[in-house]
Amino acid sequence: MAIEQTLILIKPDGLFRRLTGLTIDRLDSTGLEMVGAKMVSVSEDLAREHYKSLSDKPFFPNLIRYIRGEFHGLKDSRILALVYRGEGAIAKVRLIAGATNPEQAAPGTIRGSFGRITTAQQFENVIHASSDPVDAKREVELWFKPQEILA
């Protein structure tokens, strides 16, 4: 298996509900190495660039509002951006993250344990995890400068 890097974003609902430590604990249980971490204020441009592959979906406007913290009344749009590295990092993080839809996520996964769907049908699934090597490379480069990641 190849050594990979993957991006994880602890989204505003994770911060708002104080799930950051529990989420990192579960990520650390994968045996992967955290090589980057920072708080990021999510601009509209950054959100749109991050989710550009979903821009034609009807839920895109709410997705942008969600990642920017607007659903949680946050005055700024902070998220915690992380980079983990190791053998099979993308698949390992996706496994511990669980299905995107919290109602379909397996018990014990991050989304299965902490995710929910609001009465407005908004997924609150706590984290974003890169889906494949191409997305991981693009996302890590979007959210981090090379010098912000430990070699």
Question: What is the approximate shape?
Answer: globular
**Based on helices, strands and strand pairing, what is the structural class?**
alpha+beta
Order of helices and strands: EHHEHHEHHEEEH
Number of strands: 6
- Helical fraction equals 25-40%
Largest beta-sheet characterization: 4 strands, antiparallel
Any low-confidence stretches, pLDDT <50, length ≥5?
none
Strand order within the widest beta sheet:
2-3-1-6
The Cα radius of gyration reads: 14 Å
- How confident overall, as mean pLDDT? 92
What is the fold's blueprint, element by element?
Blueprint: E1 3-10, H1 12-16, H2 20-28, E2 33-41, H3 44-50, H4 60-67, E3 78-87, H5 89-97, H6 110-114, E4 116-117, E5 123-124, E6 127-129, H7 133-143
Antiparallel strand pairs: 1-3, 1-6, 2-3, 4-5
Textual characterization of the structure:
The protein has 7 helices and 6 strands; from the N terminus they run βααβααβααβββα. It is α+β, with helices and mostly antiparallel strands. It has a 4-stranded antiparallel sheet, with helices on both faces. A two-stranded antiparallel sheet has the order 4-5. The longest helix is centred in the C-terminal third of the chain and has 11 residues, at 133-143. 35% of the residues are buried.
